[in-house]
Amino acid sequence: MCFGATCPNCSKQSWRGCGSHVPSVLSSVPEEDRCTCEPKFQAADGKEYPPQAGTGSPPPSSSKEDL
């Protein structure tokens, strides 16, 4: 069984568990509130979801620092 969890890397909503229930666990979580870490998890419904909490890595920063 899967359940909601907070990602320790990006502090957004992710999941823990077997992986079979990810779509239902994250169905009420808006896209902008979901974990942004990679690699993404592809569920049985064919959609991509955040990786299991604590197993992914934050994506590279898209912001450029001024030198």
Your description of this structure?
By secondary structure, the protein is mainly beta. It has one helix and four strands, in the order ββαββ. The strands form two sheets. Strands 1-2 form a two-stranded antiparallel ribbon. A two-stranded antiparallel sheet has the order 3-4. The longest helix has 5 residues, at 22-26. The protein is globular, with a radius of gyration of 13 Å. 18% of the residues are buried. The model has no long low-confidence stretch (mean pLDDT 92).
Main-sheet strand order equals 1-2
The overall average pLDDT, rounded, is 92
Secondary structure class reads mainly beta
Report the total helices: 1
Strand content: 15-25%
Question: Which key terms come to mind for this protein?
Answer:
67 residues, mainly beta, two-stranded antiparallel sheet, 7% helix
Question: Quick recap of the structure?
Answer:
Helices cover 7% and strands 18% of the residues. The chain is mostly beta strands and 67 residues long. The strands form two sheets. The protein has a two-stranded antiparallel sheet.
